[in-house]
Fold this sequence. Notes:
The complex is a heterotrimer of chains A (237), B (358) and C (295). By secondary structure, chain A is mainly alpha-helical. Helices cover 79% and strands 0% of the residues of chain A. Chain A is built from twelve helices and no strands. In chain A, α7 (99-124) crosses α9 (140-169), α8 (127-135) runs antiparallel to α9 and α11 packs antiparallel against α12. Chain A is globular and about 65 Å long. The relative contact order of chain A is 0.16. Chain B contains ten helices and 20 strands. In chain B, the strands form four sheets. A six-stranded mixed sheet of chain B has the order 6-7-8-3-9-10, sandwiched between helices. The longest helix of chain B is centred in the middle third of the chain and has 18 residues, at 169-186. The radius of gyration of chain B is 25 Å and the shape is elongated. Chain C has helices at residues 5-15, 24-53, 57-66, 68-101, 107-119, 122-133, 140-145, 154-165, 167-180, 183-190, 195-224, 227-233, 243-252, 256-294. The longest helix of chain C is centred in the last third of the chain and has 39 residues, at 256-294. The two termini of chain C are 26 Å apart. Chain B binds chain C through residues 49, 51, 71-72, 76-78, 80-82, 84-89, 97-98, 101-102, 135-137, 149-150, 152-153, and chain C through 183-184, 186-194, 197, 201-202, 205-206, 290-291, 294-295.
Amino acid sequence: xxxxxxxxxxxxxxxxxxxxxxxxxxxxxxxxxxxxxxxxxxxxxxxxxxxxxxxxxxxxxxxxxxxxxxxxxxxxxxxxxxxxxxxxxxxxxxxxxxxxxxxxxxxxxxxxxxxxxxxxxxxxxxxxxxxxxxxxxxxxxxxxxxxxxxxxxxxxxxxxxxxxxxxxxxxxxxxxxxxxxxxxxxxxxxxxxxxxxxxxxxxxxxxxxxxxxxxxxxxxxxxxxxxxxxxxxxxxx
Amino acid sequence: xxxxxxxxxxxxxxxxxxxxxxxxxxxxxxxxxxxxxxxxxxxxxxxxxxxxxxxxxxxxxxxxxxxxxxxxxxxxxxxxxxxxxxxxxxxxxxxxxxxxxxxxxxxxxxxxxxxxxxxxxxxxxxxxxxxxxxxxxxxxxxxxxxxxxxxxxxxxxxxxxxxxxxxxxxxxxxxxxxxxxxxxxxxxxxxxxxxxxxxxxxxxxxxxxxxxxxxxxxxxxxxxxxxxxxxxxxxxxxxxxxxxxxxxxxxxxxxxxxxxxxxxxxxxxxxxxxxxxxxxxxxxxxxxxxxxxxxxxxxxxxxxxxxxxxxxxxxxxxxxxxxxxxxxxxxxxxxxxxxxxxxxxxxxxxxxxxxxxx
Amino acid sequence: xxxxxxxxxxxxxxxxxxxxxxxxxxxxxxxxxxxxxxxxxxxxxxxxxxxxxxxxxxxxxxxxxxxxxxxxxxxxxxxxxxxxxxxxxxxxxxxxxxxxxxxxxxxxxxxxxxxxxxxxxxxxxxxxxxxxxxxxxxxxxxxxxxxxxxxxxxxxxxxxxxxxxxxxxxxxxxxxxxxxxxxxxxxxxxxxxxxxxxxxxxxxxxxxxxxxxxxxxxxxxxxxxxxxxxxxxxxxxxxxxxxxxxxxxxxxxxxxxxxxxxxxxxxxxxxxxxxxxxxxxxxxxxxxxxxxxxx
Lengths: 237, 358, 295
């Protein structure tokens, strides 16, 4: 395969559409997890409510549950006749077999990352610092914004990038719920496998290389961001 | 068992921890390696133990070259700074460990191990703790167990890294005396590392003062305290006043008195070292105009600070506004009846002037 | 993911003070939103697995599990895990030992390499094995000449499983061993213990809970891996199908009840994993706590 063939293989509209879906859905999934993961970590470290320990243990389920099982289970719930899908269908919202379904699957598999990186930092935060803020007249929200959030930001970024990286490469949970329609809901790892099944090894490798390069660049950017956030934290301290 | 260290050098990257250090430790002595952190004392101790290898130089135990001998063959007892007790073993098993890991041929029987461990635990007066785990012990108890564990293998040399560093002041004092008594009983050649001059002066037979990878002085506690070899040793052992003087022809004038400088001091600026308790204070009454009056010079009391049995007096020398600190007993202070802003006469009783102020 | 987690949790629980509490309505709202989110993304899928599996009754459920293909898939899954887990246990301990107890050139490269399987898509990991050992791969011809089959055969599945599960043990042990330092090992050395004696009597007892934790995570991933195994397996029923792959085949044949039945076995294994994990966390938390109280 020469350069031109390579370029052609990795830029056909179907492949480009798959990059867009893979990286886009992974990004959205990671953002959702950053928000809700932070909330979950907060609730689990700060509040008391019945069933808390059980929930704390279950947060790791996406690490332990085989992705294929997660895939068919999510499909069952979010298809138009499923528990959740049937509630959404009257409003014209379809989740399974659409790009939205991909986001749902990628949110599921990335869920523990943010919770488990932010949780220990929240636990180790010195109570005294928050008390000092309160004694100086800060409201709870001000304390969170100015004292707590800078402290947990690096961990949040780490969790976000871990969830993002995991989502980019994910295959098992997505293929069941995505519907895998070319140009619409087909992810890049699936395209690689399709090429492999047609014994187009060169094509599969070409796409894999592009994927590796893009994820490498993205992770490098995130690492730089993280380094910067850490530096800033250090200087501030 | 005597230890001889010859021309030992050790670098860590660009940092030179030991520069050609040579030292002889006679059999049965308790020696302190004393110096500020980073002076190389712990490195030297670890080299003696065989936990580090020197870049060059050699170590001899009783005349036999052990430089390339493995730690296991050296038969040393090592007490770690944080004790390094095995968390998952009882106190008994910790002490028994060194006996249990011996090869089958030389391993004592279970009964022998039991009695030996009991004996050691009695020696450190902790036999009632045999079934406890290390996290359940106090700092001082851990320290003594670590010592018992090191002694279990009947070491030819006992090495202790900052043995009292992690303890609070009261326990530290107790354990110091206890270690001294224990050494008098066992007479095993021992080396301990410390940065606390008081500890070294109280416990050791001989003190090795180290700085920046070099040995500055070796001597008995009396020696190094009374006759420090250089400015570093003088400063490191106890509080000291720095007083700038002008040296000419080997002499410098302080007040109205001439003091001779150490050998090698060039003419020009130098630093005189005066211990606070070597400054005598008297009241400028008519009575003492005679006698030593020419040695004394005028100063003003700028601050009085009673510290337990002593009183620290900060003095401002009238001629040049320099600050000196003097120390006197409560008794003397009461007798003198001085207070802030009083004018007094001071006489330095002992002064050392070193060539290179450091 | 660290096992010291629960200790701090205990402390924060006992330390929460009134001055630092949000208004009750904020607290309740946040808890409610969290529960809603977790219900949508965690609890419902888990419940769905069992509900779908039993939709057609116990009889169908049982027969789907004792089915010949399902049993052979289970067997293969257990074989792959039984090879990958002990190997990665040894690799992981060796890597963590080397990284935390010694200094050598290329150490940072080794640390990066350990993380590599986390960063690479499992599909690409599988692809790499196909490119190396497949018919047209680098070693393809040599393997064919010697009548060795790796791709579309059990060795490929085992290799892929080892690759994707490689980091877990080392990742768990490195921070733990770093925190514990070298002093205890040095003490053992001075007391005359040999390398093996130090490892078995001092190092291993100190890391046993972290090690067990890593092994449990490794095992969960080994049994559940889909992407990498899917690429190298060839999906030959009764021969190279693991349980997750078997679930996929049944599902694609619209045999939903059977697919979910097999899936429910995997889900039970996952729940078992979480139970073990939680027990270990409590155990280490208790140990740390008793140590701290005595301090």
